[in-house]
Task: structure prediction
Amino acid sequence: MTTLTQNAGAAYAANRTIDVAGDTFTYRRFGTSSATLPPLVLLQHFRGNLDYWDPALLDVLAADREVVTVDLRGVGGSTGTTPDTVSEMARDALRFIDALGLAAVDLLGFSLGGHIAQEIALVRPRLPRRLVLAGTAPQGAPDLHRWSDDVYSYACGDVTTADDFLALFFTGSEESTRRGWEYLARTQARTADRDAETTLACRDAQYQALMTWGIPESAKLERLSAITQPTLVANGDNDTMMSTKNSYLLAEKIRGAQIRIYPDAGHGFLDQYPVEFGHHIRHFLGR
Result:
């Protein structure tokens, strides 16, 4: 196996492994250790692995702190069976953070990862210092349970083509599509020690977790009043997967939350505006 160096940028950070409750989790840890800022732990989207994080975003985030990306149980290069509930995924994330010996973290959760980040903040409220919830939605939110036929087709096919990904994550405008292709090129720059692709079994379990989380139940929204960490909610103005209106709902229900919506952008706004979003996160989390 080729060893990659950490000082060559996030795209080339070395794969690491750690035992978590009898399974082996694959992760990457890079950036500069800070005496004042806790590590930033990133939680990935449906069917995503370590290589799906945009290196352009990661390099901005890692400029003055440590960044940790992880495959949870059964995802990518990690062993075990993928849970089919968000609550169990959150427990796996907590087991991983505990295994690293981290007493405090900041969390960035994208899409399904944002569901997990919300759950962590609720069940372990003293662990996260600050939250960034990107392209995600609260449990029980409206219009979340049953994706449109187009979204389901793009997201859940046995094989996800580049065109499927662009249709799901970007708006279809000339500019958004151009930036989408640039993102895909950045994620392919790493050729050695790439992460394993997620399996169909992982897809099915994660989809079950997403649909269960999305069952409409307005009472579930009250859970968000228990999140007291400073929170940044972000999305594109045309998210067809999680619905941009649910980002506004998140920001409304989490006390004091800030919200930032990016123009002509869909679910993959953070890959369309990686540098801008990275600097907005750094400003929010502190430098």
Observations:
- Residues 1-7 have pLDDT under 50 and may be disordered.
- Residues 146 and 211 are 7 Å apart (CA to CA).
